[in-house]
Amino acid sequence: MPHGDEFQIHIQPLNIRRIRSETTVPKGYIRLAGSKYIFSEIDIFLPTLNEGKIVRSSVCKIRQWAANKGEKIGKEITQRLHKISVARKPFEKVFYPGPILVGVLNITPDSFHDGGKYLTLDAAIRRGKLLRSEGASILEVGGESSRPGAEPVSEKTELRRILPVIKELSKDDNLISVDTRRPEVMDAALEAGARIVNDITALSSPGAVETIIKANAYAIIMHMQGVPKTMQRAPKYDFAPYEILCYLENRIIACEKAGLSHERILVDPGVGFGKSDSHNFAILNSIASFHGTGCGVMIGISHKSFIGRAGKTSIYAERLSGTIAATLNAMEQGVQFHRVHNVKEIKQAMVISEKIFSAK
Predict the structure, then answer these.
(1) pLDDT digits (tens, 9 = 90+) for 106-140
(2) Is-catalytic flag, 304?
(3) 1-20 as b/e, with b when 16 or more CB fall inside 10 Å?
(4) Which of 31, 88, 195, 339 does the annotation list as catalytic?
(5) Which domains does the chain have, with CATH numbers?
(6) What is the dihedral of CA 83, 84, 88, 90, to 10 degrees?
(7) Considering the entire predicted model, what is its pTM?
(8) With contact defined as beta carbons under 8 Å apart, do 6 and 252 qualify?
(9) How far apart are CA 159 and CA 109, in angstroms?
(10) One of 31, 80, 275, 304 is an active-site residue; which one?
(11) How would you classify the pairing of strands 296-299 and 265-268?
C-alpha cells in the first residue's frame, strides 16, 4: 500500500453496480450518496515526479490500512470515503441522485450542433419549452460558443442574446443555468432569473465566485486546458483524469474559502475542452473518480467530435447513438447531471435502462 506525506490522494470508486433502493448494502461495499449505486473497490491516485500511479484495493482493506496510518493520510482517506457516501442536499430545486438532464439552448450563430437555430426570441422560447416538456430539469442558455476554434464575442453581444430568453423562460418557473465565463454576464443573467452559472473557466475570473455568492446561486465549474480558440491544437497531460481532478479540487477549495459551499457546486471534467480523443476516453473510463470531490458530477458529451471520429462520421446528427452509449456508461458510474441536446432520446434510453434493471 502507499505511504508518505508527499501523496495527494484521490479516490475513484470501482466495481460499481446498481442495486434496488430497498436492498441492504452488502458488506464491504459503499453506497454512492444515497443512490442505487454501490462499489467495493477503490483506485487511489498518487502523483509521482513524471506520471500518475494508481494503487487498487478493496474498500475494506483501504479502511484497515487508513486506520493504521499516520493521522494525516488516514484522516484524508476517511474524509474522502465520507464525501462519496454522505447524503447531499438538493442542487437548487433538483434532488439527488438523478440522473438529471440539462437541456442545451445555444443562442449563437456558430455553436457546433445547434448554432443559428434559435437566434430569434420566439424560436428560443419554443425550444426551451420543448426541452422542458421532454424531460430537462434544467435549461442551459448560452450566448457565446465555446466550440474548438471559436472566437470570443463581446460582453454586449452575449448579453443581447441571452437576457431576453432567460427573462421569458424563467417566468414559467423553469430552472435556468447560464453558460458564461464573464462575471458581468453572470450578474446580469442571475438578475434576469437564472439560478445556476456554468463556467468553462471554473469561476477563475476576478469577482466570479463573489457574484455567485451575492445572488445566493449555484455553480458548475469545468476544467479546460487553454482557451476555445486554440485548446485542441496540442493538448497534453501526463495523466489526464488525475490532473483534471486535482485542478477541480483546488477550485473547490478556492470557492469554499471565498464562501461558496461545495454543496452549491457541480464539477465537470470538460470532455473535449483541451483534450485529445485518448484523454476523453480515459476521463469517461474514470468519471467515477470525481464523486470523491463531494460535489455532484456533470458530464457534457453530447454529439462531440471525439464521438464522430470514433464512430467514423463527421455529421453531427449521426452522433446521437454514440452520445447515448457514452451517457448510459456515465450514468452507470453514478454521474448525476447530463448536459445534452437531444433530451427526448436520452430520457427514453435512461427510462428503458431503468425498466430493464427493475424488472422482476
Answers:
(1) 998 755 556 567 779 999 999 999 999 999 999 99
(2) yes
(3) eeeeeebebbbbbbebebbe
(4) 339
(5) 10-85 (no CATH), 100-358 (3.20.20.20)
(6) 120
(7) 0.91
(8) no
(9) 14
(10) 304
(11) parallel
